[in-house]
Design a protein that fits this description.
By secondary structure, the chain is mainly α. Helices cover about 70% and strands about 0% of the residues.
């Protein structure tokens, strides 16, 4: 795929699209206090934004280069190989979730593998073009998602039962922290987008844009969790699509079953998540020269992700267990722990010329 420069606005919209579309509505033990979890995750996201910016300002260039210069070439490349493996596992998990959403929610009578074949073909085709085309597609999907968000939450207001906000038990900070850990851990994979940071052409207003992005995430998440909690109560199950459950309940101009809107939106969101992660993985592989630099590199990584997908369970409850037991810790290690280590080293290490 041909890479071109993108704007700071496009960079952060892509980030919002990835993390807000992921299952951040894991209420866990927070129950009726679940709408408070974004108050934990949004400031943490802003802190990570600032750390990544500090690292890539002091050690400019691709993020893979910063790994080499901060950890040493051997250690840095070894860590990046694990990043590459992680970025193969995460798309496979989302392929599995997409298959489960198709077969369980959207079209139970149709074979999910048909949709997967179509999705994989579209991703392969898109990644052979220009990356900016994928980004513009993401902007369109983000706009459609925002419109759906407004309609969904506005039309759900009459369905809100404020009894659902009455705490069944005393507020437990530990339960809120657990919910913040789960929702924050699931969204952390979005910070892999910083491997594309060298594509951003104007970073002069980065701090302001990062603050706006964090506040936007906080508002969107808080409003959506508040409305969904008010409509469905604390037993609301996590879903990639935050609009789908309510779409089954609301009607527009007397037309019921408005979940048809989500039938188009869900695959589009999955497309952006999987295509972005595959492209990032291919960029890492190309920069550390672990795989042959070929026009089919993205296809190779996509096939690897499909191979991992075939090893994953197909039942939704088991998928949730896999995502919580595997992807959560990996997301925290690769997008929180390692960046913090890089940040600490960057604080004490003097910048050296890039190799």
């Amino acid at each position: 795929m041909k890479a071109e420069k993108i704007t700071l606005f496009q960079f952060f919209v892509l980030f919002i699209l990835l993390v807000y579309a992921s299952p951040v509505y894991l209420i866990g033990g927070a129950k009726s206090f679940a709408y408070l979890t974004p108050a934990l995750t949004a400031p943490a996201a802003l802190l990570l934004f600032l750390m990544f910016n500090f690292i890539l300002t002091k050690f400019p260039g691709p993020l893979t280069g910063a790994f080499d210069r901060l950890l040493g070439k051997v250690t840095g490349r070894a860590v990046l190989v694990f990043y590459l493996l992680w970025l193969t596992i995460i798309p496979a998990c989302y392929l599995d979730e997409f298959n489960a959403n198709i077969t369980n929610n959207m079209s139970p009578n149709m074979d999910g593998f048909l949709f997967l074949a179509i999705m994989s073909a579209l991703i392969s085709y898109a990644l052979h073009g220009r990356f900016t085309t994928v980004v513009y597609t993401g902007l369109f999907i983000a706009l459609a998602g925002f419109i759906a968000f407004i309609l969904n939450n506005f039309l759900s207001i009459p369905l809100i039962d404020f009894v659902n906000f009455r705490p069944a038990e005393v507020f437990d900070p530990a339960s809120l922290l657990e919910a913040g850990y789960k929702s924050g851990g699931r969204m952390l994979f979005g910070f892999s987008i910083f491997f594309l940071y060298d594509f951003v052409r104007d970073r002069s207003k980065y701090i302001k844009a990062a603050a706006v992005c964090s506040v936007s995430y906080f508002l969107l998440s808080t409003v959506n969790i508040f409305v969904m909690l008010g409509v469905f109560g604390e037993n609301l199950m996590a879903s990639l699509d935050p609009y789908y459950p309510a779409c089954r309940e609301i009607s527009v101009f007397g037309i019921d079953k408005t979940e048809i809107l989500s039938f188009f939106l869900i695959p589009a969101i999955y497309f952006m998540i999987i295509a972005s992660l595959i492209f990032i993985a291919a960029k890492i592989a190309r920069e550390i020269k672990i795989l042959p630099n070929s026009v089919f590199l993205t296809d190779v990584i996509l096939l690897l992700a499909l191979g991992v997908f075939l090893l994953l369970p197909g039942e939704r409850t088991k998928i949730s267990e896999v995502m919580n037991s595997v992807s959560l810790p990996l997301n925290i290690i690769f997008c929180a722990v390692i960046p913090v280590i890089l940040f600490i080293i960057a604080l004490i290490k003097k910048p050296a010329p890039a190799e």
